[in-house]
Design brief:
With about 375 residues, the protein is an alpha+beta fold. It has two domains: about 270 residues, 2-Layer Sandwich (Beta Polymerase, domain 2); about 70 residues, Methane Monooxygenase Hydroxylase, Chain G, domain 1. It is built from eight helices and nine strands. A hairpin with a 2-residue loop joins strand 8 and strand 9. The radius of gyration is 35 Å and the shape is rod-shaped. The relative contact order is 0.09.
Length: about 375
């Protein structure tokens, strides 16, 4: 995961300027409208923003989903039709937003991140995490979602809408917004689960074979945790603002019912659980760094122990060889190494050396040094 901050909007540009700052090259901007009530669900694909005007005035609940943010002209038209504040449209296109909620007179703007992981990311799944900004605009009878790319975790919600079962068809647009928010938050649980499995595998690898590759994997996990923390921690404040019924000292409009607030409290609990898991993973990564250092230190100690044992064994052997390597003439004096004239002198010296080495090895083993 890349956690570097990039902002493409030039300094000094007037507020409300529509400049897309993302990196995804979308082929086109597509509008999909899911219009429903208790009795039926209809799906439309309008080509213009003006075609969405009837949904603004409809008593049914309308979910307008916008895939792709490159067509700023179309987005400006959508903003005109639904009376979206220019600063909100600017935030929609600025994909480096911090998760937050902003309340207007008759609209609530929610922005947060959704993280994608490729299913085939095997060796380094954490390095394959891609972030996408999701913007949700809640009105009295409509919800507008803005996405950088097509494909999202909202397919189960569409299935529930078409199935007609449950309360999603019976309740208003605020409950639909809650459902979208809850789906995004719950998607973090699967990511946390995959993260945890990777950390357990990484821990086993660090214990068995601590090397530079394992250390690099640990630091990759650490960087991913920093990025996750940057996306998840602000969500607590964001959901709490919706639960409290205020945000930025502004009263929340009545479009959020008391019943939906109860469900938002459940989302808040889920965010707290995710944060707890995230903090435990931070402790695990910190422990992995310490474990790697300890493993490397233990390996170094083992190497030094073997080298010390070898050097200790050879010290007396070198001493004996050094003595009998001196140039003395036994014919000059009987004290000048008479052993040099022994018939079995060479085999005897080798036997003595072998006995000393063997005795030292037995002593080391008895002391459990080897």
């Amino acid at each position: 995961m890349n956690i570097a901050f990039r902002r493409r909007k030039e300094a000094g540009v007037p507020p409300g300027s529509l400049i897309y700052t993302g990196t995804t090259d979308a082929r086109e901007t597509k509008i999909t409208v899911t219009d429903y009530d208790r009795d039926s669900v209809s799906v439309y694909s309008p080509e213009t923003a003006q075609a969405c005007v009837p949904f603004l005035q409809s008593p049914r609940v309308s979910w307008i989903n916008v895939d792709g943010l490159h067509d700023t002209v179309l987005l400006r038209e959508i903003g005109s039709v639904f009376d979206i504040h220019p600063l909100v449209l600017e935030d929609v296109l600025n994909t480096q937003q911090r998760p937050r909620v902003q309340v207007f007179d008759d609209q609530i703007y929610i922005v947060l991140k959704i993280l994608h992981v490729a299913d085939d990311a095997a060796a380094e799944p954490l390095a394959e995490i891609q972030e996408e900004q999701i913007s949700i605009l809640l009105g009295r009878n409509y919800v507008i979602t803005f996405q950088e790319r097509s494909g999202d975790p909202f397919d189960p919600i569409r299935t529930r809408l078409h199935a007609g079962a449950g309360r999603i068809r019976r309740m208003g647009a605020d409950y639909l917004a809650y459902t979208l928010l809850d789906t995004i938050v719950d998607s973090f649980f699967s990511l946390m689960e995959r993260f945890g499995e990777h950390l357990i595998t990484l821990e086993s690898s660090v214990i068995e074979s601590p090397d530079r590759e394992q250390l690099q994997a640990v630091y990759t996990a650490k960087r991913s945790l920093i990025a996750l923390r940057r996306h998840i921690w602000p969500m607590r404040e964001m959901v709490n603002a919706l639960v409290r019924g205020d945000a930025s000292t502004t009263e929340t409009p009545e479009i959020v019912s008391d019943t939906t607030v109860l469900y938002l409290r459940d989302v808040y609990d889920h965010v707290i659980q995710i944060i707890d898991i995230l903090e435990s993973y931070r402790d695990m990564v910190a422990a992995l760094v310490d474990l790697y250092m300890s493993s490397q230190s233990n390996r170094m100690n083992e190497v030094m122990k073997v080298l010390t044992i070898i050097a200790t064994i050879f010290i007396p052997l070198t001493f004996i060889a050094g003595i009998y390597g001196m140039n003395f003439d036994p014919d000059t004096s009987p004290f000048n190494m008479p052993e040099l004239q022994w018939y079995w002198g060479y085999p005897a010296s080798l036997a003595i050396m072998a006995a000393i080495a063997g005795g030292m090895l037995l002593f080391f083993r008895k002391k459990k040094w080897i």
